[in-house]
Amino acid sequence: MLSLDKLYPQLSSAEKMGLLDNLNTIYDSLPQTSCEQCGTCCTVPPPAYIVEYLNMFRYMKENLGDRIPEIVEKAIRFYFLELVDINLMCPFLGEDRLCMVYPARPLSCRGYGLSRNNSVFLHPRTEMEELARRYKEQHGITLPEEVVKFNLPECGNVKITGEKKVSTDHLELAISYVARLESQLFPVDLVDKELTFVPYVTHLALTVISEGARVRRLRVMREYLEKGSSDMLEGFVEKARTVNL
Fold first, then answer.
1. d(CA 8, CA 5)
2. The model's pTM
3. C-beta separation of 200 from 106 below 8 A
4. DSSP-assigned letter for residue 92
């Protein structure tokens, strides 16, 4: 995870090494698509490598300007509450149901609807029942059933608009290529263990919140489950408003 003091040096390194250009070449190998813009795929922000986060962050800084504080606030809320509030949506989903970072969206977003095998994208809410069991046994927190049972549905509304075709093998190969780019930024063992492959919204949240706030995630979750709100979370959000990205 990249704290703010490490973010810009890593971004500069990735640009100088040509990693972001190479990343966008990988993205361009996938077919162009259209859909009905229902927002279903934006219910759960998918995982992304840090090199993808750097690409998205650069796009956000260059294009979203005044929207950034709003996006950051939503990202922080998602980080703390994703396991206890089923109603959260991706912070990059606009009121018009369009993705605000669509040209820089990660590979997991680009591949949704192109394969009937969602496990290709290592979706972060797989094996939720096991996760819920651990939270109950280790932390005494009962995750809401609607969160535990949620499965991102397959999408039949994504249409390929160009001549390019895609297969599951192609998608898996693209993922491996992005992982190879990631290994030029971080030790291979971290990449292989997927320790840099987390929801891209989480990458953004962890850039702006402190280590002290991170370790209080469980307390925020408990407070929210008990009261439907969290004063501690509101304090973290307020502090994040002072962060200059």
1. 7
2. 0.90
3. yes
4. T
